[in-house]
Automatic annotation (TrEMBL):
Name of the coding gene: tgt
Entries under HAMAP family matching the protein: Q_tRNA_Tgt
Keywords assigned: Glycosyltransferase, Metal-binding, Queuosine biosynthesis, Transferase, tRNA processing, Zinc
This protein's record includes keyword Metal-binding: yes
NCBIfam families per the UniProt record, alphabetical: Q_tRNA_tgt, tgt_general
Protein name: Queuine tRNA-ribosyltransferase
Physiological role: Catalyzes the base-exchange of a guanine (G) residue with the queuine precursor 7-aminomethyl-7-deazaguanine (PreQ1) at position 34 (anticodon wobble position) in tRNAs with GU(N) anticodons (tRNA-Asp, -Asn, -His and -Tyr). Catalysis occurs through a double-displacement mechanism. The nucleophile active site attacks the C1' of nucleotide 34 to detach the guanine base from the RNA, forming a covalent enzyme-RNA intermediate. The proton acceptor active site deprotonates the incoming PreQ1, allowing a nucleophilic attack on the C1' of the ribose to form the product.
Residue ranges of the region described as RNA binding: 289-295, 313-317
Residues involved in Zn(2+) binding: C346, C348, C351, H383
InterPro entries: ArchSynthase1/Queuine_TRR (IPR050076), TGT (IPR004803), TGT-like_sf (IPR036511), tRNA_ribo_trans-like (IPR002616)
Statement: the UniProt record of this protein carries the keyword Transmembrane helix: no
Cofactor: Zn(2+)
Composition bias, Low complexity: 11-20
């Protein structure tokens, strides 16, 4: 893995979580499809598409890398079809760095979220030893059981057509090699935070065994040595489990690391810190599924290099826009005749003045949303992605310029007021 740290976060001005051993850093990650300046925000293109945006529009937001979703692409159009055209870059017309997640999160969590529309799995034939199965997953949320976890892998029911699939660590890695992203993830079990400690411990052991198996399969398939595999640290909110997981996963020869699982907002920073204090400094770290501005500062301060999150684009499609003073809902009546830019300080395509000093206005976006025009999603997504991608770029620059803590204070004092 080619990962160079350009500058470490100077602890000067750091408070409680900074201290003398500040973990933050700015670096450069080199992939077969180009470089990623870190810290970086990674837009999510779930089904090989950052919703409502062309590849050029994604590039214009400043994004350097996209994360696509293994679970969705395996089900549709199928990883073999994507492999037949030369991989995901060619398939979606994106030349830059790509990542795919392992599919684990969707198998365990998103599967349940889709539950209300489809029926339960009644019989699992793929797992031969029923005593190895963990019964009644997801029952805490009254969701139908869509996934069954065995020691070897997970059976789940497709949310598209109800077909039954069985994913093992080896299968996840095979699918990801077919998709052909530059950075892929080991197959892990993402547990619900409501699980008891005994279950969390069992799941963690399973995740560690699956990590080893993912690595073995990856090394078999990675003939050209162009694809990087990240191991995933789990352990929920428990300090001992998080540290145990960081130790176990960092002892394996991964190219980088993902920090997975669900966090309560208030203790996310400590969980990230526990992990990053243990992970080797010379390998990149990706905090999975996190991307609100205050969390980006927290993660970067605590040594995170990469973030992905659907929030900027999902919020955009709902009319929720990020501006320097916080989030606004453009559907609100007060924007109906507001002929200002969405955010006057924003340099995105939507907010940049042209045509004699005029940009797309709040009033125009309000109109598009109320009229259910497709352009609403495109313009809002361009603005939100630019806002978040460039916030992380500015944070990166503040590390290089030795004024991270000043920038953090200045930004958050307006954003969170
Ligand atoms: Zn903008």
């Amino acid at each position: 893995m080619e990962f160079k740290i350009e500058k470490k976060l100077s602890a000067k001005g750091g408070s409680a979580s900074g201290g003398k051993n500040s973990l933050g850093r700015a670096g450069v990650l080199i992939t077969a499809h180009g470089i990623i300046n870190t810290p970086a925000f990674v837009p999510v293109g779930t089904k090989a598409s950052v919703k409502a945006l062309t590849s050029e529009q994604v590039i214009d937001t400043g994004a350097e890398v996209i994360l696509a979703n293994t679970y969705h692409l395996y089900l549709q159009p199928g990883d073999e079809l994507i492999a037949s055209v030369g991989g995901i870059h060619k398939f979606m017309n994106w030349d830059g760095p790509m990542m795919t997640d392992s599919g684990g999160f969707q198998v365990f969590s998103l599967g349940a979220a889709y539950g209300k529309e489809i029926s339960k799995i009644t019989k699992i034939t793929e797992i031969t030893d029923p005593s190895l199965m963990i019964p009644e997953r997801f029952d805490d949320s009254n969701a139908p059981r869509l996934a069954k976890i065995g020691q070897d892998g997970v059976s789940f029911k497709s949310h598209l057509d109800g077909s039954i699939h069985y994913i093992t660590p080896e299968k996840s890695i095979q699918i990801q090699h077919n998709l052909g992203a530059d950075i892929i993830f080991a197959f892990d079990e993402c547990t619900s935070p409501t699980e008891d400690i005994k279950y969390q411990e069992e799941a963690l052991e399973r995740t560690h065994r699956w990590a080893e198996r993912s690595l073995i399969e990856h090394n078999k398939l990675n003939k050209e040595n162009k694809i990087y595999l990240f191991g995933i640290i789990q352990g929920g909110r428990d300090k001992n489990l998080r540290k145990k997981s960081a130790q176990a996963i960092s002892s394996m020869n991964f190219d980088g690391f993902g920090i997975g699982g669900s966090f309560a907002k208030k203790d996310m920073s400590t969980a990230v810190k526990w992990v990053n204090e243990i992970l080797p400094e010379n390998k990149p770290r990706h905090l999975l599924g996190i991307g609100e501005p205050e969390d980006l500062f927290m993660g970067i301060e605590n040594g995170v290099d990469l973030f992905d999150c659907v929030a900027p684009t999902r919020n955009a499609r709902n009319g929720t826009l990020y501006i320097k003073n916080g989030k606004i809902n453009i559907m609100n009546a007060k924007y109906k005749d507001d002929f200002n830019a969405v955010d006057q300080d924003c340099g995105c395509y939507v907010c940049s003045p042209r045509h004699g000093g005029v940009s797309y206005t709040r009033a125009y976006l309000s109109h598009l949303f109320h009229g259910k025009e497709m352009l609403a999603a495109t313009l809002a997504s361009i603005h939100n992605l630019y806002f978040i991608v460039n916030l992380v770029k500015k944070i990166r620059q503040s590390i290089l310029d030795d004024n991270f803590f000043e920038f953090k204070k200045e930004f958050l004092s307006k954003y969170l007021k």
